Amino acid sequence: MCCCTEEDVTSGGIIVMAKLYDIPLYNGTLDLCSLSGQVGLPCPIKAGMHSLMVSAKIPDLAPTASYPTLSLRAVCTHVYTCCVLQGVYSGHGVINDQNNKEVACGSGSFKLE
Q1: How confident is the model at residue 51 (pLDDT cuts 50, 70, 90)?
Q2: Amino acid 79: pLDDT
Q3: Are 95 and 103 in contact (CB under 8 A)?
Q4: Cβ of 87: how many Cβ atoms within 10 Å?
Q5: Burial 36-52 (b: 16+ CB within 10 A, else e)
Q6: pTM (predicted TM-score)
Q7: Least CB-packed of 16, 24, 30, 89 within 10 Å?
Q8: Does 44 score more than 80 pLDDT?
């Protein structure tokens, strides 16, 4: 996400919405300064043009499915294997500053096969 701020940003939030198809997976607010500090842009973020990339690990957000598989240890024992569900994932984020003013927004999607 790119943002151009007219004043220093001392705090704020990133409102994140993530979906699998149209099924909501995550809808919450993350602390802007905690995340921006992890990518080398600590608060206060000086006024001007900035670029910020926010990412999340798929297993942390995506639902999983279990299906039985035959265990190699014993013929009659079943083991349940977890996997991340395949499909079209999408996300949208809005960055607000300490005055709750929107300073940036972005969205994206990808297909997991």
Answers
A1: confident
A2: 46
A3: yes
A4: 16
A5: beeeebebebeeeebeb
A6: 0.67
A7: 24
A8: yes
